[in-house]
Each structure stands twice: as C-alpha cells, then as structure tokens.
C-alpha cells in the first residue's frame, strides 16, 4: 500500500512537510481508488536504465541523480499497475526523458530559465509534431533520444493514436514556452494557471498510455466523447494540483512562483496550511467531477453509437485513470525529489 495512507484517504496523517516557516501537514486527498505497484517494475526499470544510458541521458552524475531521485520508474509502475512489461517499460522511458528535459528548464532565475530553454525548445516541439523522426533536430541527446523513443512507441500502433500522442506531447512542450514568456509579466490567476498546469504537468499526456495499459488504443468515437475528454482533463488536473502541494517547499526554496499553493496564498492570504487546504479542496472537486463524468460515460457513448466493445474498452481505460490518480498521490508522497530539505538548504 505504500506510504500514501488508506485507500479512502491517500495522504492522510502524513508527516509535516517543508521547513523554514513553510511547514504544512499533507491533507487528506479523499481518494477512494486502491493503490498498487506493477510487479513488472524490476524488469521495466532495467530496460529503462539501459535505454537511458544508451541515449546519453545520464552521462554525468548530476544527470543520473535527477532520474534516480525522481523515481520515474516507480511512478509509471504506480500509474499503470496492470500494464504488461513492454508498455510499462515504454512509459518508464518517456517519464525518464521528460524529467531530464524538465531539469534543463528547472533553474531558479527566470532569465537563466529562458537561456537554458530557448536553444532547443522550438526544435523539440517541431520534432514532436512530426513524430520525432527528424534525427536529433539540432537538440543533441534530447532530440536523438526523442526520435528513438518515438520509433519504439509508434511501431505497430495505429496512426490515429500516434497522431494524438504527438499532439499532446507538443502541447506539453509548449507549456515550457508559455511559462518562459510569462516570466516577465504578472503572475496568472488561479483559474488561468490551472488550465496551463493541467497540460504542463504531463499527466494529461500520460493518459494516452492508460489506453495501452488497458489493452489497446481507443477508437476515435471514444476519444472524441466529451465525457471521456473530461475524464482525461480531470485526471491531469488532479495530478497537477497534488504535485504542486508536494513540490511547494522545493519550489519555494528556488523562488519559483508557478505553483497552485503559492498562487492561492497570494490571492487569499493566510497561512501556508490554509493555502494547502484550499488546493486540496480543488482536488476534491476534481474527484467529484471525475466520478460524475464516469457515471455519464456509457450512456453518452451509447448515444453516439459506440458498440459494446468500445464502451467496455473505455471503461477499462477509465479504471487505469483511477490508478493514475491514486498512483500519483502515492508517488508524490514517497519520492525523494519532493522530500523536505533541511532549513536553509
């Protein structure tokens, strides 16, 4: 069961987080979905590390530490506890690439962030839109690794699913540029920020792999259904807010303001704990919306003419999304990347 609390209240009763005047108790996220770790984790983790090393993504001790401390393989194993070893290893590779690319942008000063992001971001987006087939796209190891990863991902899979994956990944990368361009202006309001964060956290993109973990890519009639799209959105939004709560002390230390807790405290005042509790209330609203959309999904699909097989496949994918929601809570709670540092660190 990990350290995420009971099935009914993941995160409840957790130790206090933060230091230096920014301490808070992790709230009860009221998550009713059971947590699990995919038993294929050791095999998938080994395959991920062999790929990371072959692609040069861990060429320095610092680069390797970023991946090690992020536990991306365990995140994938919690998100997709029933996926076969091949799908799990694929998700692990994507998560490793994403956290290493994030590290390129993850610097304290906005000016330094812009300098580090600008040289390769537009080229990576172009590579993602075209399916990662442009060699390294002038992006060095990141572009070359993305091209290799894309070829592994697209092999034997439907063009429609691949196009959706590429589009969602391009949106994820564009979110870095949005933050870069906004760095010189005023902070966004919470609603604007959450629309952005739903994309920038990467969990919305990762729901594409929920389809594979559930058995296969979904037909377009399911993907286009408004209720299914809402389930994907709420999965991504819930994950982003939970991550913002756990990462708040880390981002506060680096003076990084794009965080739901920070923005809620700026808007409403009060203590850090009050801002954290407001953020947690947003996750409760996400969960309520998710369950409501789930209850409408099958009737909506039937009204669109989706057959029994398509409806069953959609429900299997929704079940994986539930694992993603719970798995994200548990991973954020246990990962060293978000562990509290000593005061002054």
Automatic annotation (TrEMBL):
Q: Which Pfam family is one of those matched by this entry?
A: Terpene_syn_C_2
One MF term in GO for this entry? terpene synthase activity
Task: Please tell me whether the keyword Lyase is annotated for this protein.
Answer: yes
- Record key words, sorted: Lyase, Magnesium, Metal-binding
Q: What is its EC number?
A: 4.2.3.-
Top EC class of this enzyme: lyase
Q: Which InterPro entries match?
A: Isoprenoid_synthase_dom_sf, Terpene_cyclase-like_2
Determine the domain of life of the protein's source: Bacteria
Q: Which metal ions or organic cofactors does this protein require, according to UniProt?
A: Mg(2+)
Family classification? Belongs to the terpene synthase family.
What protein does this entry describe?
A: Terpene synthase
């Amino acid at each position: 069961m990990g350290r995420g609390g009971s099935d009914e209240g993941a995160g409840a009763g957790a130790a206090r987080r933060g230091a230096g005047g920014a301490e808070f108790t992790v709230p009860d996220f009221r998550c009713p979905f059971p947590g699990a770790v995919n038993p294929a984790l050791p095999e998938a983790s080994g395959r991920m590390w062999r790929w990371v090393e072959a692609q040069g993504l861990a060429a320095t001790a610092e680069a390797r530490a970023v991946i090690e401390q992020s536990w991306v393989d365990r995140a994938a194993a919690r998100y997709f506890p029933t996926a076969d070893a091949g799908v799990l290893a694929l998700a692990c590779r994507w998560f490793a690439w994403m956290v290493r690319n994030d590290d390129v942008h993850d610097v304290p000063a906005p000016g330094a962030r812009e300098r580090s992001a600008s040289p390769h971001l537009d080229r990576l987006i172009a590579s993602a839109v075209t399916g990662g087939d442009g060699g390294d796209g002038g992006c060095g190891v990141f572009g070359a690794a993305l091209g290799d990863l894309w070829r592994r991902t697209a092999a034997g899979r439907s063009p429609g699913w691949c196009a959706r994956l590429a589009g969602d990944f391009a949106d994820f990368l564009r979110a870095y540029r949005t933050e870069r361009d906004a760095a010189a202006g005023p902070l966004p309001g919470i609603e604007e920020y959450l629309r952005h964060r739903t994309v920038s956290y990467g969990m919305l993109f990762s729901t594409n792999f929920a389809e594979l973990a559930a058995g296969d890519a979904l037909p377009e009639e399911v993907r286009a259904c408004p209720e299914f799209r809402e389930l994907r959105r709420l999965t991504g939004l819930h994950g982003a807010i939970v991550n913002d709560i756990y990462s708040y002390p880390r981002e506060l230390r680096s003076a990084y303001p794009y965080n739901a807790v920070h923005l809620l405290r700026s808007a409403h005042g009060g203590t850090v704990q009050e801002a954290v509790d407001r953020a947690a209330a947003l996750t409760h609203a996400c969960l309520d919306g998710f369950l409501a959309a789930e209850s409408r999904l099958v009737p909506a699909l039937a009204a669109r003419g989706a057959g029994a097989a398509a409806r069953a496949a959609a429900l299997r994918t929704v079940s994986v999304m539930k694992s993603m929601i719970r798995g994200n809570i548990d991973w954020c709670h246990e990962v060293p990347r978000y562990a509290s540092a000593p005061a002054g660190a």
